[in-house]
UniProtKB/TrEMBL annotation:
PANTHER family: PROPHAGE INTEGRASE (PTHR30629), PROPHAGE INTEGRASE INTS-RELATED (PTHR30629:SF2). This is Phage integrase central domain-containing protein. Pfam families: Phage_int_M (PF22022). Belongs to the 'phage' integrase family. InterPro entries: DNA_brk_join_enz, Integrase_recombinase_N, Phage_int_M, Phage_Integrase. GO terms for biological process: DNA integration. Residues 19-83 form the Phage integrase central domain. Keywords: DNA integration, DNA-binding.
Amino acid sequence: MPNGSKFWKLSYRIKENTFEKVAKDWWDNYESEVSENYHNKLWRALELCVFPFIGKKSMVEISRLDLIAILQDLKEKGIREMTLQVYIDLKVMIFIIIM
């Protein structure tokens, strides 16, 4: 279990913020680690494929099934590259959020 202050900070961040807000915070920090072109491409994928489904939900409202539905929708549309990229983005974001 995380130490006290880290736990409460995480708890507040997750409960009080929408997925889009947390993603934006993460993205602003991630921006310096990738090229501008790559950064813009990935953010656009989130805007088109993720935010319409879960962007306004609080972090505690998002289920694994929500994430699977997003990926399944992309897969059914035949957008393989974007499906993979959205999967990677979500995985990295979730890992960073719980760190």
